[in-house]
């Protein structure tokens, strides 16, 4: 369904790796609803996969962004400020943990691996918010992506569980702090979906199988379903929704293990 609920809105999308990315499902929905998009890609290796997608949704800003690179991040927001003079919403759909830490026990996680996972997957959301805030002159929406493994222990999700728990905490605190400026902060919590990042989680196929079997709808989610919910959340129709983690998981989260 195409609507124009985002007509005139400017949005930043961080997290497209390819056409399977959750961020791509969201970008298509935002574009279909009339938003203009700035799209980032991790590095030159990612560019050939991301650029054609960004061009498909006519993004006027397509730039590299590694969130660990302060200069790139500053430059991105300067560009948005110069070109648009404002920002209405931002999607943070990124995660990373070094493989050896992701595949081991949380108990054994190295300090370095833990800090890297936290930095890229969690604190980067605050850094983006900090730079977006002055541009959200008409209020706005900051959206991130979490997973059920931040709430309950999910086998093989490892250190990403505590990292997502922290991210969900950030959502609440940032929502409280930014509410006065009419900047809303929310997290999408999709069920498992086969993406590049998901491929890093051991036995991911089993997770998909369980999600299908145990969810009331007995279905796996798709990135377009996440996009539809995200489109609502960044629109003015969701102006009273903030500080929330919303599930798009075919109801999996309500079931006892
Ligand atoms: P994906 O591989 O398509 O996207 C992950 C993105 O993170 C990539 O675009 C990658 O370039 C980016 N990234 C990694 N390190 C970065 C850095 N230093 N700077 C900038 N970008 C960086 O996978 P996805 O599944 O679409 O992941 C998007 C988000 O959704 C993640 O936060 C993930 O935890 C979350 N999520 C995924 C699932 C799932 O099952 N796939 C379920 C729930 C939540």
The distinct bound ligands, ions and cofactors come out as: nicotinamide-adenine-dinucleotide
Q: Pairing-aware structural class of the strands and helices?
A: alpha/beta
CATH H-level superfamily: NAD(P)-binding Rossmann-like Domain
Count of runs of 4 or more consecutive helical residues:
8
Strand order of the largest sheet: 3-2-1-4-5-6-7
Number of domains: 1
Residue share in helix? 40-55%
Mean pLDDT: 97
Q: Span from first to last CA?
A: 35 Å
> How would you sum up the global shape?
globular
CATH class designation: Alpha Beta
What oligomeric assembly is this protein in? single chain
CATH architecture annotation name: 3-Layer(aba) Sandwich
Major pleated sheet: 7 strands, parallel
User: What do we call the CATH topology?
Assistant: Rossmann fold
Unreliably modeled segments: none
What is the H/E string? Answer: EHEHEHEHHEHEHHE
Number of strands: 7
Beta-sheet strand percentage?
A: 5-15%
What value does the Rg take, in angstroms? 17 Å
